[in-house]
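Hello support,

Our group uses your service weekly, and this is the first time we've seen a run hang past the timeout. The protein is Thioredoxin domain-containing protein. I'm not sure whether the cause is the sequence or the server load. Input pasted verbatim:
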Amino acid sequence: MAYVVAALVLVGLLGALNLMLAVGVVRRLREHSAELAALRSGGAAADAGALSSFGEVALRDGSPVGAFTAVAVDGEPVTLGTFGDRPLVGFFSPGCTPCEEQLPAFVEFAADRPGGRGTRLAVVVGAGEETAETVERLSPVATVVVEPDGGPVQQAFGVTGFPAFVLVSDGLVTASHYQLHAVAGRDAAALSAAG
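Update from on-call engineer: The timeout came from a worker crash unrelated to the input. Re-ran successfully.
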């Protein structure tokens, strides 16, 4: 009988320990969910200084874009000069949930942006079949380049995460962010100021 009591006490203690560990894991998951929500909302929960530590995914405003040469999916050579004085550039990676969330907004914004398809560059990072759907969605509104991770266009723009949106003016970054609305707002302001 003493063995049964000892076994029940041991099982009870293990159950209590398991419950405490589960509560700790749930608490940590809630913290991570809150941090992820803050990142996806553009860092609204953080001040601008804190945002710069986790919001940057490309070169900072005022930085010169590096030289690059690439080939578009239609076979045409591509350089920064190909896109005029004020290109809009978007970087996407298939399988990236934030990229999928931002892609329809980019397509819509790019379609409505003055200057035509030749003022927009979309870079899809990946290879083969995984990029096909993204390329198909972007091709009507932008020149599309497919390159591997760490490719020449990503290096020229200092891309460290996806999605990344960059607005360039005369070879200098005027806006960059992982949320399209931040770049689109700067673009709209610049276009209205220009006339």
